[in-house]
Amino acid sequence: MEQDNLSVVLHSQGDLRLEKRPVPEPGPNEVLLQMHSVGICGSDVHYWQHGRIGDFVVMKPMVLGHEASGRVVKVGSAVKHLQVGDRVAVEPGVPREMDEFFKNGRYNLSPTIFFCATPPDDGNLCRYYTHSANFCYKLPDNVTFEEGALIEPLSVGIHACRRADVTLGSTVLICGADLFPERLAMAKELGADFQLTVKRGDGPQQLATRVENMLGDQPHITIECTGVESSIQAAIYATRSGGVVVLVGLGSEMATIPLINAAVREVDIRGVFRYCNTWPMAIAMLASGKVNVKPLVTHRFPLEQAVQAFETTRQGLGIKVMLKCDQNDQNP
User: Fold this and answer.
1) Alpha carbon distance 312, 322 (integer Å)
2) Could you tell me where in the chain the CATH 3.90.180.10 domains are found?
3) 320 Cβ partners below 8 Å, 6+ apart?
4) Phi and psi at residue 302, in whole multiples of 5°?
């Protein structure tokens, strides 16, 4: 094991550094992971560029990264289900206490939850990282480290679909990729039936009409992934009466929306905050081949080139930029 722990550390707005930190020791219920693949999320870039997301403010140096997988290199004394050498995916949100949210299965809503790379909690964009063993999930042999890292964003989708009650036969509108032709092309490649490019000057109601004309009917469910006010408005207008709008994207705290339109048509508006209880399903999806996330990785960088990787993400040059943390294994 290396003696230094190269880490990507955000000190303050715009101040991103590579630093060598000590290799941590796992507690009784933790494992020490040699990190392998860590994806860069939009939230990582946002913290770098703005120093905060809402009420979460970077007040002290923080290791970034929360879309992660790695290999177990040491286990805590109380850990029974994992052993050295196991390949695992990391669920970044770990409840700190057994509160009412934990007990009713919605631990993502616990106000005291630990979450990687959300101030003041450090993330896992580093060579070595300790994490609760109960929130590390063994990867089947046919699931790669990169797929393991992509379970985190996949989990956002799974949780959103659960919140929306998506079932076989549901017609679903997804708002979020429509300003970038290459992302629309990727959506089509991965299973979207139709793509709609937003035109300059399109109003929310015009967009809703275009959606209905394209589908031949209004969608049962709309999953809004931008947080942009006009997109939320379009999502509500586009959804059929009795349907559901799920808000995944986070924007301004206040938004003007056609609430009465939704109310009189009994369109439910539901929020999403991260995910919970999704890793087993996501792993099963990937292992079975029912879901293919591999094409989403468009760029790979060694950990030493983290600043360049973050700049690539900021410029929107790829879909998912992956950092490779193990010097001796740069494979997917």
Assistant:
1) 11
2) 5-150+293-324
3) 39, 40, 150, 153, 296, 297, 298, 299
4) -65, 155
- Whether the per-residue pLDDT at 2 is higher than 70: the answer is no
CA distance 285 to 292: 9
pLDDT tens digit string along 301-315? 999 999 999 999 999
Domain 5-150+293-324, what fold? Quinone Oxidoreductase; Chain A, domain 1 (3.90.180)
φ, ψ (nearest 5 deg) of residue 48: -60, -45
Between 151-164 and 279-288, two packed helices, what is the crossing angle to 10 degrees? 110
Q: Checking DSSP bridges between strand 114-115 and strand 93-94, what pairing results, if any?
A: antiparallel
Q: 158-271: which CATH number, 2.30.30.50, 3.40.50.300, 3.40.50.720, 3.30.1330.30?
A: 3.40.50.720
Give this prediction's pTM.
0.95
The answer to which of 23-27, 175-179, 241-245, 267-271 has the lowest mean pLDDT is: 175-179
